Amino acid sequence: MSNAEHLQMVEKITNGLKIAEREMLEEKARNNESVIVCGDDKVIRRIPAKNFL
Question: Can you give the pLDDT at residue 53?
Answer without folding.
Answer: 87
